[in-house]
Amino acid sequence: MTTLTEQDSLWIRRYHPRPDAAARLVCLPHAGGSATFYHPVSAGMPASVDVLAVQYPGRQDRRTEPCATSIAELADQVTAVLLPWADRPLVLFGHSMGATLGFEVARRLQRDHGVVPRALFASARRAPSCPRHETVHLRDDDGLVQEMRQLSGTDAAILDDEELIRMALPAIRADYRAAETYTYEPGPNLACPIVSLVGDDDPKVTVDEARAWSRHTDTASEFHVFPGGHFYLTAHAQDVLGLLTKWAVRS
């Protein structure tokens, strides 16, 4: 039986605990995002799947903690936290920055601990082997807010609240810095399937860049294109939940 530690309580949010579940779905937020983004996913999964939403440091109830400075640092931390939960099959789902993080966590689990996830879902993110030069993290505060508005993933009420957005900006900037300075280091492919998802009008990733995730696994891959932009999954929640359920419950 998994024992919840103080460290787990900081990192892992189980909005609908399912202690008898046969598999676990690990949800990794986008840049500037938090575990609460995945509350609807937790509510929508069947009783056979326990949903673990990861809360990064530097936001919400962890806002006084320093943010991670790189994807590598964050991947090391998340991997260590997930090990006690790996007594059952894991499915990793990462959106945007969370997809890159999920990839690096899967690599560490496989390489260092012999734990191969059931699948990695890479949503709204180009494959690690498709780098882009991006400098959003170098913009001033107004430039960061403009980026968030364009991607339509943050509640407008928050963006329009001067006090709230100023509190959130340090974590947003740190996440963008980690995502934009990430450099893929070639190595063994994953032994788990990769399911890549993308919106057909996403300004952050092209369809071809998303399709390239298949290069990073030695087994099966799936590729799904949805109408919409960077946060296509909001309008297609049921379709995404269906795919997650299919992979999480398979034996």
TrEMBL record:
InterPro entries named among the record's database cross-references: AB_hydrolase_fold, TEII, TesA-like, Thioesterase
Gene3D superfamilies with a match to the protein in the record: alpha/beta hydrolase
Source domain of life: Bacteria
Domain Thioesterase TesA-like, first and last residues per copy: 26-244
A Pfam entry, by short name: Thioesterase
TM spans (from-to): none
Transport in keyword set: no
Keyword vocabulary terms for this entry: Hydrolase
SUPFAM superfamilies registered for this protein in UniProt: alpha/beta-Hydrolases (SSF53474)
Family: Belongs to the thioesterase family.
PANTHER family found in the cross-reference section: S-ACYL FATTY ACID SYNTHASE THIOESTERASE, MEDIUM CHAIN (PTHR11487:SF0), THIOESTERASE (PTHR11487)
Protein name from the UniProt record: Thioesterase
